[in-house]
Amino acid sequence: MTQIQKRNNRRYFHYQKEILNTISEPASFITDKYRYVFVNNAFNDFFNKQTDKVIGKTPSEIWGEDNFKKNIAPQMDRALNGETVFFQYRGKMLDGKFKILEINYYPHYKPSGSIDGIIAITNDVTKQKHAEEALKESEARLKDLNETKDKLFSVIGHDLKGPLHNIVAFSELIEEQHGEYSREEIRKFNQLILQSAQSLSSLLDNLLSWSYSQTQSIKIFPQAILLHSIAEKCFDFLKQNAFQKEIRLINDVSPEMHAVADEKMITTVIRNLISNAIKFTDRGGKITVTATIVEDEIFVAIRDSGTGISKEKTELLFQSCGIQSSTGTEGEGGTGMGLIICKDFIEKNNGRIWVESELNNGSVFSFSLPVNF
Question: NCBIfam families per the record (predicted)?
Fold first, then answer.
């Protein structure tokens, strides 16, 4: 190569460096021997790496040997073979922060037409990609929420009819023909009205809880809560349902046992689980609430002597596809929505929920909660 050609090449490379210094994205020139010979000002700023700490180094020295061989070298080889390469790099930067980069490798041609290196231009798309991923998650959640809502309201519409019909029918009987019935008969009608009203109340409570939860309107107030006391309150609320089926409610939770959780949410969970147990337990059965502490968790179990659940159904109980109209041992209605709420509320309180059951051999619904803040 003549002196004039060498001088022209230097001028040409100097001109290219000046152009790369004008762009706002990090840019560098890497030779076909895998060595940095130029980085622009934006490169220094973005990677917090001074020019003299980069020039003459190889990408493997800057980014690490394993990372270079796995993620960078294959793309560089494509560019050195004449391809314009575009790829995304996800990983830790030189400062230890995780970023998502869009990297362009352009083959650099000498005046003779041969390739002597790569011009690399980088664009930080971390925020953009996180926003896109968040949007996809939001869209998927919204789709699932809409599907659940549609299924939920179709089931609720069906289950509202029964209790409402009972309330209206028995109220009309008492109003129109009260003189023809004995006090005992009227009392039985009133018990049926009460049972139907409680069923409606529970259904509407669950619907409101689910609505608040899905719209993020519900706020969590964790505190030390006494589980024996909560179970007693739920027994009081549901004692009429249990009495009518001659079901014994047993609270075996030690009075001093506590968990750290939102009291209203856990009350809703225990009430739903006991209500379900009553619904699917035969007349004369029993339901027992127990609790045990293991290290920093408390495990609460609601055990019934009911009809049990098949393995296929247990896998769907806590999913939106498990919402369906179901009938208790004496015709009680139900949607399965309560279990969806239980799972949501328990997980919001840093716990887990699960079920163990066999057909004709009862069920045990259990959940865990932390015992410390």
Answer: sensory_box
